[in-house]
């Protein structure tokens, strides 16, 4: 992956993904240094991964941008 592609992905998805990943890490760490990742952790990650852009926009009360016009 090029640096430009990595930065583009980070800017596009980072604002949503980074806090979610940080929350999961904090949840696991709160159970102690020897905590095992549980099926519930994977279920939460799966649930978060299945969110659509519309779900995320709705949660933050944002009106999604209009779809791009077809070429």
What does this structure look like?
The protein has 71 residues and is an all-alpha fold. The protein has three helices and no strands. The protein has a domain at 36-60. The longest helix has 27 residues, at 3-29.
Produce a short descriptive summary.
The protein is mainly alpha-helical. Helices cover 63% and strands 0% of the residues.
Low-confidence segments, given as residue ranges, are: none
Number of strands: 0
SS class: mainly alpha
* Count of separate DSSP helical elements: 3
- Give the SSE string: HHH
- Give the DSSP E fraction (strand runs of 2 or more residues): under 5%
Question: What's the helical proportion of residues?
Answer: 55-70%
Rg over CA atoms: 16 Å
Separation of the first and last Cα atoms: 27 Å
Features:
3 helices, mainly alpha, about 70 residues, single chain, about 65% helix
């Amino acid at each position: 992956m090029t640096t430009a592609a990595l930065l583009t992905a980070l800017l596009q998805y980072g604002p949503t993904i980074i806090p979610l990943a940080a929350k999961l890490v904090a949840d696991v760490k709160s159970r102690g240094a020897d905590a095992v990742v549980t099926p519930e952790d994977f279920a939460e990650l799966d649930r978060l991964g299945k969110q659509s852009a519309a779900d995320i926009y709705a949660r933050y009360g944002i009106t999604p941008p209009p779809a791009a016009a077809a070429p």
